[in-house]
Specification:
The chain has 3 helices and 4 strands; from the N terminus they run E-E-H-E-H-E-H. With 91 residues, it is α/β, with parallel strands linked by helices. The protein has one domain: STAS domain (Transcription Regulator spoIIAA). Helix 1 packs parallel to helix 2. The radius of gyration is 12 Å and the shape is globular.
Length: 91
Amino acid sequence: MNDLGDRIEVAGAMTLAAAKALLAEGKTFLARADAVFDLAGVTDVDSSGLAVVFGWQREAKRLGKNIRIANPPHNLRSLADVYGVSELLPF
């Protein structure tokens, strides 16, 4: 992840192998400020990636922060649709 000031750039895979690190890193950003996570650079997503987004969302709520997901990859949106949770996500 890269902090670009106005947004946090997420790149690479959002899969099981990366989920724990992505969740922890996102929580670190949220501890400082509201966050826009820009997923334009994400190359692969599985259900773990969806869980990471929900984890970020829970942490933001716990901290009283706002969160938004920018440029979600098509496969993340598709997974959210399959699981029936699209309306719960901050897209």
